[in-house]
Amino acid sequence: MSTTDAVSYLDCHEPAATDDGGMLPPYSAEDAICPKCLYGEAFTWYRAAITQAHLQDWNDTQVRRGPLPQRLERECSRCTYRWDESLAVEHAGMTVSALAYALDNATPYPVELHRQVLEHMAQQLLAMLRITARPDHSLWQHSDGATPPATPPDTDTAAEETDR
Predict the structure, then answer these.
(1) CB 84 within 8 A of CB 73
(2) 34: number of CA atoms within 13 Å, CB side?
């Protein structure tokens, strides 16, 4: 297959673009390094989106995974550790969206920055630094993005506090 044929094939058959909002580490291309054993070779598989949580054998443990966006599953060719990465973009490495997500979740206190500010900061950092993600970090362990339900206050304790 020639290069022109490959490009036209990809134009017709590439997966629909999804915005994971930076919830997955960016695609690391040939620079993939296993976060467990630091080996420099990894296999890659495309995985379709999962709309509902289900039990799955993931790194020798039964875990409930999902919902998940379309993603690339990487597997270390030495130790078989697996991790997810975002779909490939024009250039491998950290994306503005992923870095903005990391910046938004990096503050130890509740400061809400506007998305445009986060993206501007991410663009400036990417112009100055070569940044890679650690896929084993809890920040990149995808959740459905929903805020966990608030725990209702204990009515007895709340009543005592209002009496004071």
Answers:
(1) yes
(2) 17
Vertex 100, ends 99 and 104: CA angle to 5°?
Answer: 115
**Taking CA 108 as the corner, what is the angle to CA 107 and CA 111, rounded to the nearest 5 degrees?**
55
DSSP 70-128: SEEEEEETTT--EEEEPPP-SSSS--HHHHHHHHHT--SS-----HHHHHHHHHHHHHH
Per-residue tokens: 92: 């491998």
By three-state DSSP, how is residue 156 classified? Answer: helix
Question: Each residue's pLDDT tens digit in the chain (164 positions)?
Answer: 444 444 444 444 444 444 555 677 878 888 888 988 999 999 999 999 888 888 888 888 888 888 888 889 999 999 999 999 888 765 556 778 888 888 888 877 777 888 899 989 988 888 888 777 777 777 776 554 454 455 555 555 545 555 55
What is the Rg, in whole angstroms, of the alpha carbon atoms belonging to the chain? 20
- At residue 74, what is the residue type? R
d(CA 32, CA 44): 10
